[in-house]
Amino acid sequence: MEFNQIKSFEEACAALNISNALPDFSEAPDAMQAHLKAAYKLPIIIAAINNGWMPNWKNTDERKWMPWFYMNDENAEGGFSFAASSSTAPLPSSVPAFAS
Fold this sequence. Notes:
By secondary structure, the protein is an alpha+beta fold. It is built from two helices and two strands, in the order ααββ. The longest helix has 20 residues.
C-alpha cells in the first residue's frame, strides 16, 4: 500500500498486517483516554507510512528528519508556527528533553 493511501489507523494496521485492537485505557482518567489512544495509534500510522521503517534514536549515524517550531509569547501574533526541518542526528542525551 502506498503511503498516500493510508487514511486511517485501521488502514495502517492492515498495511502492517497487525491487529487494530486498542489496549484497555479504562483505568486512565477519562480526560486522558483520548490522548492515550491517539498516542498509541500515531507510531503505528507512522510505521505504515514509512513502509515499516522506524527510526533508531540510539543510532547517531542514522539520519532523521525533525521539524522545528517556534512558540511566540502571548503578545505576539501567530503563536505556534512551523519554522523549518532538517535532517540531522538526534540530539545528545545531555539535552533533558531527549534523554532516555
